[in-house]
Amino acid sequence: MRHFIRNQPKGFSLLFFTELWERFGFYTLQTILILYMTHSLLYDDETAYLLYGAFSAMLYLTPVVGGYLADRFIGFRISILIGSLLYIVGYLLASLPSPSSFFLGLSAVIVANGFFKPNVSSLVGELYDQEDPRRDGGFTLFYMGINIGSLIPPLFVGALVATYGWHWAFVLAAVGISVGLVTFIVGKKSLGRAGCVPAISPLHKKKSFKRLFYSLLTVGTLVSIYLIHLIFYIPKNANLILLVASLVILLAVIYFLMKERPEQRRKMGASLVLMLISVGFWAIYNQTWTSLMLFADRNMGKTMLGFTIDAEFTQFFNPFFIILLSPFLSRFWLYLDQKKSNPSTPMKFSIASLFLALGFLFLGGAVSFFSRGGVTSPWWLVGSYFLQTIGELLISPIGLSMVTRLSPRHLVGMMMGVWFLTQSAAFSIGGFLSTLADVPKQSSQLVSSEIYGKAFDSFGFLAMLLALVSMLLVPKLKKMIHSKV
Prior knowledge:
Layout lengths: L1 H5 L5 H29 L4 H15 L3 H32 L4 H27 L9 H17 L1 H12 L2 H21 L19 H25 L3 H24 L3 H24 L5 H8 L4 E2 L2 E2 L8 H22 L6 H25 L8 H16 L2 H11 L5 H22 L11 H37 L4
Antiparallel strand pairs: 1-2
């Protein structure tokens, strides 16, 4: 791995490990979230799905604002520092044995994600020249760092919770982001001037404005956490609230887009279309944390290679495959680029949807035809995750690279936030789709197995339809972009 990272720009390894530890903390939370709500807080499936969908949707709503603040005022570095501190506060609040503190903690995590998530990725993009052929490969390696962080928690969080209780998992998440924060502070000199307060920022002008701005930023952050906290008490209305907020953000993006030159507008327009395609992809893919997790808990065999495994452990496979495949794909894109045969970004998105479809149809067929007494071997789930992971690697890191290449420098942070906003919509839609796998309480394993089999088939056919539509759009999108990206 060191060999692959060494070929990337100076400062890349710092951001690689900063993101790795931030993701370690986040995926510690993500691994237990749906199980914590159903087993500890005793919510039924529908309520847990709605709360999870609301959390995930809001999680990716805030990066647009965080990206804009970094572009216009504080820069990527300060945004990352603020986000890290808010993560720590959020995880510690969630660790307290109270539903209200749990929701307040999740709200702080949502705001933290707005400051951290778009800006660390944007900062990676700032390390490359505009046409640097290492960009796609670099983001693929960066994405591997994300998944090294997400690989570790499923290995032992289930045992940690079983031995010491749910709340210690939240404390562990706080420890993870703390390590990432220290890593970033110690190594930030390697970034040079990348990510500093932008030249256009009014913070350079007057100290009095600087004090006023940071006072307003502090108050706005606290008010945002409180308002988001209230939404958890009305999860059925969360989608409407998020829809209104998303429309406001979309109008703002269109306003900024119309101020750009025609060539830049076409590139940004292509970027927005690809983001819409990604909504469909992630809405289906994100069943990992809902219906697939509960399927593993209820209908998956718990023995593998002679070892006993639990539902939490199944979250190991996706990041494992990402770590396994990322270095090879990183080199593969460079190789294809040298051969002038690297698929365009729109084509990579289309192939990604195809692999997602194959993953769900593979598992749906296994549940329908190879389960015994309602129990399916975990190997079928492993195979499904392998196919889905190939799809993920063709859309997620490539999408991050696309945003930094097709967006003008002064809008990279905001457009990165829009990329994550599409995931907000995807989580909201995914929460709705997961109700196809809603299993009534006290159902037998045979009944739940039949429900899951039909749901997985449905997800597969939807992904296949998405792949077909996106392939039809490839020629038009390539023309808008004017080059392979």
